[in-house]
Write a structure and sequence with these properties.
heterodimer; A: 425 residues; alpha+beta; Jelly Rolls; Immunoglobulin-like; five-stranded mixed sheet; 8 helices; B: 288 residues; particulate methane monooxygenase, chain B; globular
Chain lengths: 425, 288
């Protein structure tokens, strides 16, 4: 009895194998889709760790607001250091563009200023220099949006910096983007010119449909084909139909000429698209740093998510200095002995107790000291920087910040090779 | 049912008017004879049709289905070709410049219309190959722009409108109709296809080339739209537009670009006319 049931079942399955496969595939697809969540990120974690650490140093980032209404403006400000450790595998940013990494046009970019220069087009930035930037955005689409700063480098691609969630409330239909033109009029970019686009396209689509239908309804396809096949192709089109064609041609040219003339008359002062790049962007004029660092060697412990760097630090300044912060790839590792109050920064990028030193006491003026710094946090892993151990160039870079009792801050770029330490097997 | 019938169509067409098909025969073509299958009707034993009217109706339906299917196929085929080749110049208002856009777009878009002109003209004497293709492309583009670019990603239509192509296509079709020569169409039609693009589109583009001062910089409205509506993966340097060269004729760039586009379009037309010839056949189907 059991054998018979199994035989019948097997026969049934064999007979409906195709359908069962299709059903299984559909179910699998549905399950995959059911588990899909909204995409928040912009691929910033997918880039090789050493590239993210050695290209750009973003710091002093500030989002002026994280809760805004439609049409409300907000800013992202900060500093951008082009690392001296810039890797050879990416072309230096001699042609680049400071961009906003956001999910489409959820906010309009009113302007970006780099070194005080309004930069609506590409620019040249120099390796080793630090630039102040400001982005002015205008909230457009309601939602919960992850917004990055980003530098796109020609032939290299986009290098996303730190991101922050922006909540936009209100009604999308209320959005306007007023812009003043040189002729004195003010237009709304959101809707400008759309009606004329629709009308012009609709007009010509109707003409095209009429032309096609006119010829199609004259003996159709099969009829014409058989006429041509029988060698009478010269008889298919009548002189009247040619006349219709000639009139249509004349009318078409006339409409284009009249349309062009009206446009030229309505808009006598037009200019071509503007395309020039910006050169000589002013960098921050930083005073000479009183700190010199010699990198003696480093290791990265994969299981402990811990980077250690052995440094020889010389303080040639007039005040004692303490190491307070290390920034790499947008992640901030703080020394809790220096940062004693809460820091306003996206939590997923902030390791408030991530930095420690072998000797935490201040480095006195004129002193040279060997120091081992330890940068340890799970964010090495969550931000996929632990992949450094498997990169084609096992070297890191970042910015080390020193603080003086009088409130001065000095940034020193730090870079070098690291030797990974793997899980014991 | 039809499978059991023999002699569905005769060997050679006869010329006669089918009065019972006014939908086809109406208007200017009413007096012109149309082809009808040389078939015997019910009682004769060789036709699936009971009357000439029924035969004409079936032909009419088949024609309409063929036209609709061709249109849908061309939306897909031509649209993919267009998007993969001249895509960005057509996608964005801040790519529609006076040098690259009038050069690239006609050269790359004269392709399928040339092949379609072969198919429709040589086999049907229908002078709408280019218009048919350009209308199909525009239907596809408008669906894409409205549903994807606006509906999904909320880029306003004034940033993403497609290039207007119909007058260019009509010109090419009517040159073929009047000249009855693909050589003349290749030379005059392709050149016109290119030369007409800028003036035809200037009707809607001019307003986007008005100047505006933004924080000390001069920008066109098109530049501004492209800048304000953030395209994360499209940094400004990606734009392949006129950036100035010692070889341009001062500010008179459009004419030079359009004529150059026209000359190359002539060559492209020649090639694609023969592509149309190569594929307007059923010989590849024989082995199936």
């Amino acid at each position: 009895m059991k054998t018979r049931i199994l035989t019948e079942l097997a026969r049934l399955v064999t007979r409906h194998a195709g359908r069962l496969w299709a059903l299984a595939l559909a179910a699998g697809l549905a399950l995959t889709m059911a588990s899909a969540g909204p995409a928040d990120a912009h691929g910033e974690k997918s880039q090789a760790a050493f590239l993210r650490m050695r290209t750009l140093g973003w710091y002093d980032l500030k989002w002026s607001k994280t809760q805004v209404n439609v049409n409300e403006e907000y800013e992202i400000t900060g500093k951008l250091h082009i690392m001296n450790a810039w890797p050879a595998s990416i072309r230096v940013p001699e042609r680049c563009f400071v961009n906003v990494g956001q999910p489409g046009a959820m906010a309009n970019r009113i302007g970006v200023w780099v070194g005080g220069q309004f930069t609506p087009r590409s620019m040249e930035l120099k390796v080793g220099k630090t630039y102040e930037f400001r982005m002015l955005l205008r909230a457009r689409r309601p939602g919960h949006w992850h917004t990055h700063v980003q530098l796109s480098v020609e032939t290299g691609g986009p290098i996303p910096g730190p991101g922050q969630y922006i909540d936009i409330k209100g009604n999308f239909a209320d959005f306007t983007d007023p812009v003043k033109l040189l002729n004195g009029s003010t237009i709304n970019l959101e809707t400008y010119g759309i009606t004329s686009i629709y009308l012009w396209h609709a007009f010509w689509m109707i003409v095209a449909a009429a032309w096609i239908w006119y010829w199609f309804t004259r003996r159709g396809l099969l009829g014409r084909f058989m006429w041509v096949a029988s060698g009478k192709e010269e008889e298919v089109i009548t002189p009247q139909e040619r006349l219709v064609g000639a009139v249509t041609l004349g009318a078409t040219l006339l409409v284009v000429i009249i349309g062009y003339s009206i446009a030229a008359s309505n808009y006598p002062n037009t200019i071509p698209l503007q395309a020039g790049d910006f050169r000589n962007i002013p960098a921050i004029d930083e005073p000479a740093s009183p700190v010199q660092i010699k990198f003696l060697g480093g290791t990265y412990k994969v299981p402990g998510r811990e980077l250690t760097a052995n440094l020889k630090i010389t303080n040639s300044g007039k005040e004692p200095l303490r190491v307070g912060e290390f920034i790499t790839a947008g992640l901030r590792f703080l020394n809790p002995d220096v940062y004693t109050s809460k820091v306003d920064y996206p939590d997923y990028l902030l390791a408030e107790r991530g930095l420690s030193l072998s000797d935490p006491s201040p480095i006195q003026p004129g002193e040279t000291r060997d120091v081992t710094i330890t940068i340890q946090d799970a964010r090495w892993d969550t931000e996929r920087l632990s992949g450094l151990a498997y990169d084609v160039d096992s070297s890191f870079a970042g910015m080390l910040f020193f603080f003086s009792p009088s409130g001065e801050r000095y940034m020193v770029e730090l870079s070098g090779a690291v030797i990974p330490s793997f899980l014991p097997v | 049912m039809l499978r059991n019938k023999t002699g569905k169509t005769g060997a050679a067409p006869v010329t006669e008017s089918i009065l019972a098909s006014p939908g086809i025969e109406g208007g200017a073509g009413a007096n012109v004879p149309r082809a009808a299958p040389n078939i015997a009707f019910a009682g004769g034993g060789s036709s699936p049709f009971t009357s000439r009217a029924e035969a004409a109706g079936a032909i009419q339906t088949a024609d309409l289905l063929a036209l609709v299917f061709l249109f849908l196929i061309m939306i897909g085929g031509y649209h993919v070709h267009a998007m993969l080749t001249m895509g960005d110049w057509d996608f964005w208002v801040d790519w529609k410049d006076r040098r690259m856009w009038p050069t690239v777009v006609p050269i790359l878009l004269v392709t399928f219309p040339a092949a379609a002109q072969y198919f429709f003209w040589v086999h049907y004497r229908l002078p709408f190959g280019a218009t048919f293709l350009c209308a199909a492309l525009l239907v596809g583009e408008w669906i894409d722009r409205y549903v994807n670019f606006w509906g999904w990603t909320y880029y306003p239509v004034n940033l993403i409108w497609p290039t207007s192509l119909i007058p260019m296509a009509l010109f090419m079709d009517i040159v073929l109709l009047l000249s009855r020569s693909w050589i003349i169409t290749m030379i005059v039609g392709s050149m016109g296809f290119s030369l007409l693009m800028y003036p035809n589109n200037w009707v809607i583009l001019a307003q986007f080339h008005l100047p505006s001062e933004q924080y000390g910089q001069l920008m066109t409205v098109a530049d501004l739209i492209g800048y304000h509506y953030v395209r994360t993966s499209m940094p400004e340097y990606i734009r392949i537009i006129e950036r100035g060269t010692m070889r341009t004729f001062g500010k008179d760039v459009v004419g030079v670009a359009a004529f150059f586009g026209g000359f190359v379009s002539i060559i492209v037309y020649f090639v694609w006319w023969h592509v149309g010839k190569m594929f307007s056949t059923v010989k590849y189907m024989k082995s199936i």
